[in-house]
Amino acid sequence: MAQRIDVKDLDVYYGTFHAVADVSMMIEARSVTALIGPSGCGKSTFLRTLNRMHEVIPGARVDGTVTVDGVDLYDPAVDPVAVRRQIGMVFQRPNPFPTMSIAENVLAGVRLNNRRISKSDAADLVETSLRGANLWKEVKDRLDRPGSSLSGGQQQRLCIARAIAVKPQILLMDEPASALDPISTLAIEDLIAELKNDYTIVIVTHNMQQAARVSDRTAFFNVAGTGEPGRLIEMDDTRTMFSTPSVQATEDYISGRFG
Length: 259
Ligand SMILES: Nc1ncnc2c1ncn2[C@@H]1O[C@H](COP(=O)(O)OP(=O)(O)OP(=O)(O)O)[C@@H](O)[C@H]1O
Known about the structure:
Elements: E1 5-14, E2 17-27, E3 32-36, H1 43-49, E4 60-68, E5 71-72, H2 80-86, E6 87-90, H3 102-112, H4 119-132, H5 136-139, H6 152-165, E7 170-174, H7 182-195, E8 200-204, H8 208-214, E9 217-223, E10 230-237, H9 238-243, H10 248-254
Parallel strand pairs: 2-10, 3-8, 3-9, 6-7, 7-8
Antiparallel strand pairs: 1-2, 1-4, 4-5, 9-10
Helix pairs in contact: 3-4, 3-6, 4-6, 6-7
Bound molecules: adenosine-5'-triphosphate.
Protein name: Phosphate ABC transporter ATP-binding protein
Domain ABC transporter: 5-248
Pfam families: ABC_tran
């Protein structure tokens, strides 16, 4: 299920703008990796290149390789739609389909992939995905109600259920709790801790406590100035990054001196 990701010499461009330069990193299977750094340093841009999501932005392109269990995602023979099925994404704002029922929201990704699925298999998949996202108990009696009838935190867990329903190996999360209240945030963090038993997780967060709580490894990105590309400054075990980082800029950022 879970797979490791090996990024080598990755550069990302928006047209002529060089947004991220020369990133190499290894992301272990069944681990949580946090991407941190000041606004504009390229965290989201980098994250999107891990499932070719940046390709939906006109002019965005990469150089370098992203290898998932031996397969280069950028090999011309690889289908980007298949990549996004294998590597799911959860965004900052919960984005369930508002008029679609809770159950249909869970199945939305599966249906988009044109997979035929019997009624009883669909019901099973809805249940296991909602259980996986820690939402089942709260919604099991109202699966036919619209996705928009849920609270923000529940909607985000519904989006996680939708992401895991397609059985990806990797989950990318772009500030998944930043629009949520503290209790929902903790629920998402608990869920991330459980999900890493089955998935490789990469999460962008601005919240240092959250990075320290949920991740095994932390990668610090920085940008030297406007118009400059973001770069990976250092990456290490989260505990080391937060106690004895090697680079002064990491320490300054983590301790709140900038960013
Ligand atoms: N669609 C786009 N077109 C052109 N430039 C973009 C686009 N998206 C992002 N950028 C630029 O790329 C750089 C990196 O942006 P990105 O959003 O990846 O940073 P970030 O570290 O995730 O920031 P934040 O923490 O504010 O979300 C920035 O200079 C940004 O302005």
